[in-house]
Amino acid sequence: MNRSGSVDLEPRADEGADPLATDAALRQRARLTRTIFVGLFLAMFAFSMLQLGIVPERLIEALPRVQFVMGIMLPPVLDGPMGVLAAAVESVQVAILGTVFGILMSMVLGFLAARNVTPIGPLSWGIKAFAGFVRAVPALVWALLFIMAVGLGPIPGILALAVNSIGMLAKVYAEAIEEIPKGPIEALRACGASRTQIALQGVLPCVIRPFIAWSVFRFDINIRYSAILGVVGAGGIGWELVRASQIGRYDRALGVTLVIFVMVMLTEWWSNWLRDRVERTPA
Amino acid sequence: MRTPVGTGRDGPVGTQPTPDGTGTGPNGQGPAYAAYQARNRVLLRNRAAVWAVLLGACVWATWGTGFGLVTFIQGIGTSIQFIAQDLLPPRWDMAPQFIQPALDTLYMSVVGLGISITLSIPLGIFAARNMTASRIVAYLAKMVTGFVRAVPSLVLAIFLVAVFGIGPLAGALALGIGGVGILAKAYGDSIEDIDPKQVEGVRATGGSWLQVLGQAVWPQCKPSFVTWTLYRFDRNIRGGAVLGLAGAGGLGFSLDQAIGLYQFGTATTIILMIYALVLASEALTGALRRRAI
């Protein structure tokens, strides 16, 4: 697959050999690099397969097992629908609160981390490093830590989602603030506005749109996380899923999975509605 | 909260209300001002609806989970205490033991990525309106990817562990299938976004469907293809690190075991290794992305 085929090369052939030669050489080199990269990836892929012991025999051996599990799994069963629904509701609540606390903390941290409005210079660097670390450690690992600290239930889940959201939101908020034009800030400062007034009247109106977009996006992510937080014991519907699969009732597990599916779809629809409402500006 | 309306999108300056509040502009701009007012009313109504819904959701969630600002601050306090007392210092002497699980996580991500790409390219092509065989095929492909996207990888892992047993094989497959939800959508969207003129050009010279794909579609969507694929690799490393919590091998499995045995120092070592792995993969994909685009 070539960038542009020989079709457009032919007419240029009589323009002189020199540019064409360099062009061809460049193209040859690009193709070589691409071949090397693709080859490397394929080699790595094969090597990883071998290292993980993924060989055709193992997959064939698993076939009867697939049949067995499928046999149990279908048709899906909703065991104690009210209990499962209550767990799903709890998951949604965990996601909402985790996102809200994440947003609140990130707003403050984002303002402190943006280089152009931060009151203390080094603080900006420190918060960004902290956010980077928090972002790189997965939400489920945070949930495990918070369970160790505060016990089982929805509270460690909310804390984990809030902390994990800070990792992403504080970064993108700070970046949004760093991109605002200088004019309004200087104008406010020249009028003698205080730091809080500058933040509320100068900075916030410029960044409210990216803030909302990112926050809604984060809510979509958090809903997916909150559905699985229960796997480690942090409340919500994930717990129902693990409980069903631990006793080998894969039909119940599939039922819970379908509820998760509906839950994610419904909240996505809801967040789309919110985004629509916010962005709708009559001309 | 201050509205974002006043940022230069409101039309002429003269449509501002007069200081004495009589409403009509000083230069006879009555209709413009009325339109401005009507627009503000709609904006206000939209904003009120959004805030009411948000506030209602917060109150509902707080009431349901018994979680409030006080719990939040208390929880953070307890957690900081726990981190300082139990998690620190990390036990570095245990680190060599976890190099194999870390490599397993890496292998899982690579295999998962390979599976995702292989499945996503045909799905993406079929889901794109301009390259698909028929509308129904496109709809079906979109539905399949949407369904996969709504099911978290960890849930897939639970089922796959049941089939393939505990170990990284289930994890690799879960990452592979889970990636289809994102990659097939991304590929399909980027194919839909291409400039149709180039496609028409190649088609006009008598190019077959495959030639159109190779000469017209691929050159245009290559950058987004590379970006999304590398993004998915990053996600795989993070996802692979936690899939182990469901029994799918890798660093997560070791972490689960260490915490189950209350070996918190060891757990910290593993968490820091996850962090290092994520940083390394981000550096790698960043470098590759700069090279490829």
Name the features.
heterodimer; A: 283 residues; mainly alpha; 0% strand; disordered N terminus; B: 293 residues
Show the helix and strand layout.
The complex is a heterodimer of chains A (283) and B (293).
Chain A: H1 17-51, H2 56-73, H3 81-113, H4 121-136, H5 139-150, H6 154-178, H7 182-190, H8 195-229, H9 237-246, H10 250-279
Helix pairs in contact in A: 2-10, 3-4, 3-6, 3-8, 3-9, 3-10, 4-6, 5-6, 6-8, 7-8, 8-10, 9-10
Chain B: H1 30-65, H2 69-87, H3 99-127, H4 135-150, H5 153-164, H6 168-192, H7 196-204, H8 209-243, H9 251-260, H10 264-292
Helix pairs in contact in B: 3-4, 3-6, 3-8, 3-9, 4-6, 5-6, 6-8, 7-8, 8-10, 9-10
Give the terminus-to-terminus CA distance of chain B: 41 Å
Number of strands of chain A: 0
Helix/strand/pairing class of chain A, anyone?
mainly alpha
Question: Helix amount of chain A, in percent?
Answer: over 70%
Major sheet of chain A:
none
Distance between the termini of chain A: 46 Å
- Describe the global form of chain B: globular
What general form of chain A does the structure show? flat
Uncertain runs of chain A? 1-16
Residue stretches of chain B low in confidence (pLDDT < 50, at least 5 long) are 1-23
Strand content of chain A: under 5%
Residues in β-strands, percent of chain B: under 5%
Helix and strand sequence of chain B: HHHHHHHHHH
Oligomer: heterodimer
**Tally of separate helices of chain A:** 10
Q: Please provide the ordered H/E string of secondary-structure elements of chain A.
A: HHHHHHHHHH
Instruction: Output the radius of gyration of chain A.
Output: 27 Å
Alpha-carbon Rg of chain B, integer = 27 Å
Structure description:
The complex is a heterodimer of chains A (283) and B (293). With 283 residues, chain A is mostly helical. Chain A is built from ten helices and no strands. Chain A has helices spanning 17-51, 56-73, 81-113, 121-136, 139-150, 154-178, 182-190, 195-229, 237-246, 250-279. Chain A is flat. Chain B has 293 residues and is mainly α. Chain B is built from ten helices and no strands. Chain B has helices at 30-65, 69-87, 99-127, 135-150, 153-164, 168-192, 196-204, 209-243, 251-260, 264-292. In chain B, helix 3 (99-127) crosses helix 9. The longest helix of chain B has 36 residues, at 30-65. In chain B, 41% of the residues are buried. Mean pLDDT of chain B is 81; it is low at 1-23. The chains are: A mainly alpha (283), B mainly alpha (293). The interface between A and B is large, with 84 and 85 residues.
